[in-house]
Design goal:
The structure is a single chain. With 301 residues, the chain is an alpha/beta fold. It has 3 domains: 81 residues, Orthogonal Bundle (Arc Repressor Mutant, subunit A), CATH 1.10.10.10; 94 residues, D-Maltodextrin-Binding Protein, domain 2, CATH 3.40.190; 110 residues, D-Maltodextrin-Binding Protein, domain 2. Helix content is 45%, strand content 22%. It contains 11 helices and 11 strands. Strand 7, helix 8 and strand 8 form a beta-alpha-beta unit. Helix 1 crosses helix 2, helix 1 crosses helix 4 and helix 2 crosses helix 3.
Length: 301
């Protein structure tokens, strides 16, 4: 008879190893943290091997633990897929956790095209404000700036770039003599109202712009400060000043003539919008279709 390890302990170990945290595994499995610790200890006693390193601040797998995790994850995922096929509960609904700004300005305007191509696939959007925990308990797919999570596949959709934009009406008010010369525009910035975004740890966007271009803003520089770039873009649309906007957010407004991209330098923020899903799930028909569609969309922009 084939001898198997305690399956409940194996399930708990897989969750703890994937999330790299006992308390997160406890939350995912709806048990206590002490129960997670007990199940892992039971599995270690079964194998007579340590599966986690206990002398580090971060939960890390031993070599034997990493080997077991790789096989346990694949086996449990395969069982879950088989169960779906047997019960007929192979849902075509996919949950996508995505930054609200990226969803509103980039994804949602394009999503109707995907739905026309794949009407049987229902994409449910869950808006996020910060990086979520990558886990099936949160969503099936993610768009965030995470790119190195174990067991996940990542696809870079867009490298964020900030460009100075203003409405044609504001430019007429700001520039008495129209010009497209970069140096003249830089010189005239002291007369402009800067629509500034305070991005917390990243700092003030216009401050970063001035530093990147080795310029010093005027002490009398007029600025309106916002907590989110979407607010700054809306202010630019109603002729209140010049905003530093993510290029993908204002592409449609520039194409329609509501905003003008000024002939001033742009800056890369270092923030990448990455699509992520579990490696073993990227071949599922619904997810594979969404990934292929995303690739085409990112290439076109």
């Amino acid at each position: 008879m084939r001898k198997l390890p305690p399956l409940r302990s194996l399930q708990v170990f897989e969750s703890a190893a994937r999330l790299q945290h006992f308390s997160r595994a406890a939350d995912e499995l709806c048990i206590t943290q002490s129960a997670v610790s007990h199940q892992v200890k039971q599995l270690e006693e079964y194998y007579g091997e340590s599966l986690f390193m206990r002398n580090t601040r971060q939960l890390q797998l031993t070599a034997k633990g990493a080997l077991l995790f790789e096989q346990a994850e694949a086996s449990l995922n395969l069982l879950a897929d088989v169960s779906k096929q047997i019960t007929g509960n192979d849902s075509q609904q996919l949950r996508l956790a995505v930054y609200s700004s990226f969803a509103i300005k980039w994804l949602i305007p394009r999503l109707s095209e995907f739905r026309k191509l794949h009407p049987q696939i229902d994409i449910r959007l869950d808006m996020i404000a910060s990086n979520p925990q990558l886990s099936d308990s949160v969503a099936d797919m993610f768009i965030s700036d995470q790119s190195d999570h174990k067991g996940y596949s990542h696809l870079t959709l867009h490298k964020e770039r900030l460009i100075p934009v203003a409405s044609p009406e504001y430019i007429k008010q700001w520039l008495v003599k129209p010009t497209n010369d970069t140096q003249q525009l830089k010189d005239r910035l002291t007369d402009a109202v800067l629509l500034t975004v305070d991005e917390g740890q990243l700092g003030i966007d216009w401050q970063r712009w001035f530093k990147a271009n080795k310029l010093t803003p005027s002490a009398l520089q007029q600025q309106h400060i916002f907590s989110h770039v979407l607010f700054a873009i809306e202010a630019a649309l109603v002729h209140q000043g010049i905003a530093l906007a993510s290029d993908f957010m204002v592409k449609d407004d520039i194409d329609s003539g509501r905003l003008v991209a000024l002939n001033l330098p742009d800056i890369l923020t270092g923030f990448d919008f990455n699509f992520s899903c579990k490696q073993r799930r990227q071949r599922e028909p619904a997810i594979a279709s969404f990934i292929e569609w995303l690739k085409l969309q990112s290439q076109s922009t």
